[in-house]
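User: Here's a structure from my thesis project, written as structure tokens. My advisor, Dr. K., wants to see whether a designed sequence matches the one we expressed. Can you design one independently, without my sequence as a hint?
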């Protein structure tokens, strides 16, 4: 693996893994404590519509997914804020709509020869300099928002009704959180793909939650675990010529099951 670091594609993959891990550590922790994993899954699959639309218009697939996902995030926030009990129906519709739109636009694209499979399952070894710039920008924005509005996110995560009574604009921060989720998902497309991104968003925070008492600690540990899982999966994929995204998620899944088993057997 050491000799592989001399290749530019491997250096890009390592940088991408760290950036994605930091982003997922922060956003994933907020998603888990707010019980919004299903919402993240809906936006992730709905983002496929942006990929297909960008392909049809001849635009960058990632920027197409970014804009489309942000739009879906605003719609989801508007429809689920006041009626979270029925959020499953909204997410199911968004999920199906995005996937259907993506497939239709891909079918309509002239001279269609782009393999969208890499966006579904990830290909971190093919990360470009442009992808890194997008990942870096999203990571910096997520870190900045988490630092500036940590108390607000903490308030809506554990007692939204009390936060509302204290005068906090809970609807605004709820919407911002879902938009952050959309941005995080798009930045992770190259690493693990749309289908597997929810696992990277949820597994490290689930593990971290068992060892942390503060949200800030959970974010830091989640990010560290994500880095560990990403680099381990990347190493395995390089050594055994496996799909990088699936390898990363497989490592994370094994860690999750080990922690669950150990927790159950703890005296």
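Assistant: Designed independently from the structure alone:
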């Amino acid at each position: 693996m050491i000799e592989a670091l001399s290749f530019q594609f491997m250096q890009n993959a390592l940088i991408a893994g760290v950036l994605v891990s930091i982003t997922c550590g922060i956003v994933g922790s907020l998603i888990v404590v707010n019980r919004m994993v299903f919402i993240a899954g809906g936006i992730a699959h709905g983002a496929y519509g942006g990929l297909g639309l960008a392909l049809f218009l001849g635009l960058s697939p990632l920027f197409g997914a970014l804009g489309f996902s942000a739009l879906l995030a605003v719609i989801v926030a508007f429809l689920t804020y006041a009626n979270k009990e029925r959020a499953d129906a909204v997410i199911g519709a968004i999920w199906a709509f995005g996937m259907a739109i993506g497939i239709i636009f891909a079918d309509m694209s002239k001279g269609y020869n782009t393999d969208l499979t890499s966006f579904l399952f990830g290909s971190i070894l093919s990360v470009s300099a442009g992808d890194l710039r997008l990942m870096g920008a999203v990571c910096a924005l997520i870190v900045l928002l988490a630092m500036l509005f940590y108390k607000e996110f903490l308030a809506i995560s554990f007692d939204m009704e009390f936060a509302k009574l204290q005068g906090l604009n809970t609807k605004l921060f709820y919407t911002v959180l879902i938009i952050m989720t959309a941005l995080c998902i798009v930045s992770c497309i190259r690493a693990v793909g749309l289908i597997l991104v929810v696992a990277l968003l949820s597994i490290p925070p689930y593990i971290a939650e068992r060892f942390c008492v503060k949200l800030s600690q959970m974010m830091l540990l989640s990010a560290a675990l994500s880095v560990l899982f990403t680099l381990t999966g990347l190493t395995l994929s390089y050594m055994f010529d496996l799909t990088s995204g699936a390898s990363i998620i497989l490592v994370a899944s094994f860690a999750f099951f080990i922690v669950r088993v150990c927790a159950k057997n703890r005296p």
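When you compare it with your expressed construct, this may help: The mean pLDDT is 88.
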